[in-house]
Specification:
7 helices; about 375 residues; seven-stranded mixed barrel
């Protein structure tokens, strides 16, 4: 790769000769201006507005324009005489965590290439120090007629430098945020989270410029003399009427694009089932006790037991023990009831027997009394 700047990295008292190489390239398709009537190229010529003569590049200099239009010429010699320590040096001024760098400050990116064999050792030293410290270097350098701010970090095995904007070049976002007070409901946030989860992550390397591809196809078709009509893109509304409906449609479309519609519906149904509340009742029916399993001793199944079979069998035995005790208690109660009933019956029979015997005795006494009285009356008559 062709270098655009030669200089050195100043790392304390260590100087590392380097070359500056562009890390990015512009792949946009460029167009020329033409005359629509005949297709001729449109050219711009540099003309002096005072005499109307076209001038060459060697005749063109620099000047600063005052507010009233006055021009103050500035020569290259004037600029070269200015004290600029970073004219040919990338001067490291600090090492900070990468999180302290605002992405808004990011500008152009460059690779720093070691310039010559002697630069390999200090270059590797700085690279490994940056790796181990997990920090980035903040540096100042001069390029294209101005001093700039830069950030040095390690990319693979190369030191890369990102141009940074000066803090006073970052505009404050005044008047950008919505001024109308808006309340966002939790349900809307939940749908937004669901949409984010559905879209998921992406490999940046798989993304490409669809518009550039379409322009290239259009150029190729025109070059062959056949122009294919452009396919109409999906219509997008300019105003969102129902935010909830738009979020739900977005989630559904994202799932369909990823082939997750069925899975998404199952997850939604599971989520709804997990949060459904049962209606309250004034009278609650106590839960029925589970049916006791059959007592042990039944016929074993011929099927081989699974690894968890022993555990289930032990649990079944444990559960059957209280059940057998319950049955024994019920039998004992039943027997006690029978005994009590038998005792009552026996007592009643005994009482009835006593009453019968007493009645018989009383009857005998009455008969005896009558017989005695009859005998007495007979003696009196005979006398």
């Amino acid at each position: 790769m062709r270098s655009i700047w030669n200089g050195a990295i100043s790392f304390g008292l260590v100087s590392i000769p380097i070359k500056l190489v562009n890390a990015t390239e512009n792949r946009s398709i460029s167009f020329r201006q033409i005359h629509t009537e005949d297709g001729g190229r449109i050219r711009y010529r540099k003309v002096c507005e005072l005499d109307g003569q076209e001038v060459t590049a060697a005749e063109i200099g620099k000047a600063y324009e005052e507010a009233d239009g006055t021009m103050i010429p500035i020569t290259d010699e004037d600029l070269a005489a200015l004290p600029l320590p970073t004219a040919k040096t990338i001067e490291i001024v600090a090492f900070v965590p990468a999180s302290q760098i605002d992405p808004l400050q990011m500008d152009a990116a460059y690779y720093l290439q070691a310039n010559g064999v002697p630069a390999a050792k200090p270059y590797t030293l700085l690279r490994e120090a940056l790796k181990r410290s997990d920090r980035v270097a903040i540096a100042k350098y001069a390029l294209r007629g101005r001093e700039r701010l830069g950030m040095l970090r390690v990319v693979d095995d190369v030191i890369a430098m990102h141009g940074l904007l000066w803090p006073d070049e970052i505009r404050r976002p005044e008047g950008v945020a919505p001024e109308t007070p808006v309340t966002v409901r939790d349900a809307e946030l939940d749908l937004a989270d669901a949409l984010m989860d559905t879209l998921g992550s992406v490999d940046i390397g798989e993304l490409h410029d669809d518009y550039r591809t379409a322009v290239e196809e259009l150029i190729a078709a025109k070059a062959e003399g056949a122009v294919a009509p452009p396919e109409p893109g999906p219509e997008r509304g300019a105003q969102v009427i129902d935010l909830m409906a738009a979020l739900e449609s977005s989630v559904r479309a994202a799932r369909e694009a990823r082939g997750e519609e069925a899975a998404g519906e199952e997850v939604a149904r599971a989520a709804e089932a997990s949060v459904t509340d049962l209606p309250s009742r004034s009278r609650r029916t106590p839960p029925r006790a589970p049916a006791a399993p059959k007592a042990a001793g039944g016929r074993k199944s011929a099927t081989a037991e699974a690894p968890g079979g022993r555990a289930r069998k032990a649990a079944s035995k444990t559960a059957s023990a209280p059940a057998s005790k319950t049955k024994e208690g019920a039998a004992a109660d039943k027997a006690a009831v029978k005994k009590a009933a038998a005792a009552k019956t026996a007592a009643a029979d005994k009482t009835a027997a006593k009453k019968t015997a007493a009645a018989k005795t009383a009857a005998k006494k009455t008969v005896a009394k009558k017989a005695t009285a009859g005998r007495g009356a007979a003696r009196k008559r005979s006398a």
